[in-house]
C-alpha cells in the first residue's frame, strides 16, 4: 500500500470538514455498493465531494494508469475539480485537460499518467483518438453536470468516449436539474437515482425593480446600492450586454470582474480568482456562471436580464441562499412587460434618490511567477509576506497556487508597497516576479 494515500477521515480533516451532509452520505453508500448512480441535487450542495470521496476509495494505489475519468461541460469546472482533488491531499495524481489550453501542457501532464483525469468531452475525445493515454484501466466514469454537457453540444464526443472505455464498472452521473433525461448511450443498469431538494434553512427573497430602457443603468446602480457591499453576480444574457454594463460600472468607479464564454481562458480564470478572494465583490456574467464554477457564498444575485427559461432562472438563484444561508435575487425588468409566472412571490422596490453606491475595495490581487512545479507551497508564499512583507496574519488573504504561478490577496492600500518591496524576491531559491494583477 502506498503510504502517501490518505484515508477518508484524513481527507475530511485536511479539508476542515467535521461531517458530511445527508446527500453526501447517501451518495457515498450508493456509489460504493452499486454499479450506476445518478445524483440530482441543487448547485452548492457539495456534489463534487459526494462523488470524489467514494471514487478515491475505489482506486488501486499500485496501478500507475488512468483509473477514473471525470467529464465536465466547462473549463472552469475541470479546473475546480482538479483543485478540489489537490486540496484533499489524496496522494493520487489528478490533472485537468480542456479546450483552450495549450496542447503542450496536456502532453506534459499526461506524460506522467494521472490516476484521475478530468476534462471537457471535446479535449478528452481528441486525446483518445491520439492515444495519449490508455483507456483500458478506467473503471469509473463520472459525467458531472451531464445535462449541461449535452446542452452545449457534446453528445457526439460523449458517445465516442463511452464507446472507448471497455472496462468501466461504475458510472456516476450528476445534475442540478430535476426534470432531466438520463442519456441512453451511457448504458445504465437499474441506476440508484438520488434526488435532493434544496435544504431547508435557507430563505431566498426576490425583489423587483421596474425600469424603462432610458433608466436601466441608473436603476441597476440603485440595486447595487441596496446590497451593502455584499458579494454578488450580475447576470446578463449576452456578451454585448456585459460590455455595456461594464462600461457603465467603470464610469461610476464600481470595481467588478467580467466572465463570459468569449473571453480568453486566462482572463476567465483570473476574473474568478479576483472574485473569490474579494478583490472584486461583483461578477458580471452570462449563464456560464450559473452553475459548475467555484465562487464564494453569495449575498445576492441580480438578473440584469431575465434568462429565456425557468430552469436557468432557478440555477442562477441557486448561487445565493445556499445551504443554510439566506440570499436575495434582484430582478431588473421592463415596466411595460409582465413578469413571467414562474417568478412567484416578490417585493417591488421604489427608486430612492438618496441611495448611492459606496464601495471600499479591501483587497488587491498580486501575481507571483512561481508555482507547484517550482516546489513552491502556500506556506512558502505566506512566509515571504509575513517575514519580508511584514504583514500580520489577518492581512494576508486567500492564496491560490497554480502549476506555474500563484495569486495572493493583500490589503488594497498596501499592495503597491508590497510589490516594490517583494518583487524579485527568492522563494525556494527561485527568483520570482511579484506584481499587481490588472
Given the C-alpha coordinates, what overall shape results?
globular
> Rounded to an integer, what's the Rg over CA atoms?
23 Å
- Give a quick account of the main beta sheet: strands, pairing sense, barrel closure: 7 strands, parallel
Number of strands: 20
Low-confidence stretches: none
**How do the strands of the widest beta sheet line up side by side?**
3-4-2-5-6-1-7
Would you state the CATH class of the largest domain?
Alpha Beta
CATH homologous superfamily of the largest domain - what is it?
Answer: P-loop containing nucleotide triphosphate hydrolases
Number of domains: 3
Question: Could you report the average pLDDT, rounded to the nearest whole number?
Answer: 90
By DSSP (H or I, 4+ residues per run), the number of helices equals 14
CATH topology of the largest domain: Rossmann fold
Helix content: 25-40%
Amino acid at each position: 500500500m502506498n503510504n502517501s494515500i490518505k484515508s477518508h477521515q484524513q481527507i475530511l480533516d485536511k479539508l476542515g470538514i467535521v461531517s458530511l451532509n445527508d446527500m453526501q452520505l447517501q451518495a457515498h453508500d450508493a456509489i460504493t455498493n452499486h454499479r450506476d448512480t445518478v445524483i440530482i441535487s441543487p448547485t452548492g450542495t457539495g456534489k463534487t465531494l459526494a462523488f470524489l470521496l467514494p471514487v478515491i476509495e475505489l482506486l488501486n494505489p499500485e496501478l500507475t494508469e488512468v483509473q477514473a475519468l471525470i467529464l465536465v461541460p466547462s473549463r472552469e469546472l475541470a479546473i475546480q475539480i482538479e483543485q478540489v482533488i489537490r486540496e484533499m491531499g489524496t496522494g493520487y495524481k489528478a490533472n485537468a485537460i480542456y479546450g483552450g489550453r495549450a496542447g503542450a501542457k496536456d502532453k506534459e501532464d499526461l506524460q506522467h499518467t494521472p490516476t484521475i483525469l478530468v476534462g471537457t468531452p471535446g479535449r478528452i475525445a481528441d486525446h483518445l483518438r491520439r492515444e495519449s493515454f490508455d483507456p483500458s484501466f478506467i473503471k469509473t466514469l463520472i459525467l458531472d453536470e451531464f445535462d449541461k454537457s449535452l446542452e452545449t453540444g457534446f453528445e457526439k464526443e460523449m458517445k465516442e468516449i463511452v464507446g472507448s472505455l471497455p472496462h468501466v464498472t461504475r458510472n456516476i452521473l450528476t445534475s442540478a436539474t430535476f426534470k432531466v433525461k438520463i442519456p441512453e448511450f451511457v448504458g445504465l443498469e437499474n441506476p440508484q437515482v438520488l434526488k435532493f431538494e434544496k435544504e431547508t434553512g435557507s430563505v431566498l427573497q426576490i425583489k423587483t425593480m421596474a425600469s424603462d430602457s432610458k433608466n436601466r443603468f441608473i436603476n441597476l446602480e440603485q440595486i447595487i446600492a441596496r446590497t451593502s457591499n455584499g458579494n454578488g453576480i450580475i447576470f446578463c444574457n449576452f456578451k454585448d450586454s456585459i460590455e455595456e454594463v461594464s462600461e457603465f460600472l467603470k464610469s461610476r468607479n464600481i470595481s467588478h470582474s467580467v466572465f463570459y464564454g468569449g473571453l480568453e481562458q486566462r482572463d476567465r480564470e483570473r476574473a474568478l480568482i479576483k472574485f473569490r478572494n474579494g478583490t472584486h465583490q461583483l461578477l458580471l456574467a452570462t449563464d456560464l456562471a450559473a452553475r459548475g464554477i467555484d465562487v464564494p457564498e453569495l449575498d445576492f444575485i441580480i438578473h440584469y436580464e431575465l434568462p429565456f427559461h425557468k430552469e436557468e432562472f432557478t440555477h442562477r438563484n441557486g448561487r445565493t441562499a445556499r445551504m443554510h444561508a439566506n440570499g436575495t435575487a434582484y430582478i431588473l425588468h421592463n415596466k411595460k412587460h409582465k413578469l413571467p409566472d414562474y417568478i412567484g412571490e416578490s417585493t417591488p422596490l421604489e427608486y430612492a434618490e438618496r441611495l448611492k453606491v459606496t464601495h471600499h475595495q479591501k483587497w488587491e490581487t498580486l501575481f507571483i511567477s512561481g508555482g507547484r512545479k517550482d516546489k513552491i507551497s502556500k506556506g512558502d508564499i505566506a512566509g515571504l509576506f509575513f517575514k519580508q512583507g511584514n504583514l500580520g496574519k489577518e492581512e494576508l488573504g486567500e492564496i491560490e497556487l497554480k502549476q506555474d504561478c500563484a495569486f495572493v490577496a493583500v490589503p488594497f492600500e498596501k499592495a503597491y508597497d508590497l510589490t516594490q518591496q517583494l518583487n524579485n524576491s527568492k522563494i525556494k531559491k527561485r527568483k520570482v516576479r511579484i506584481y499587481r494583477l490588472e
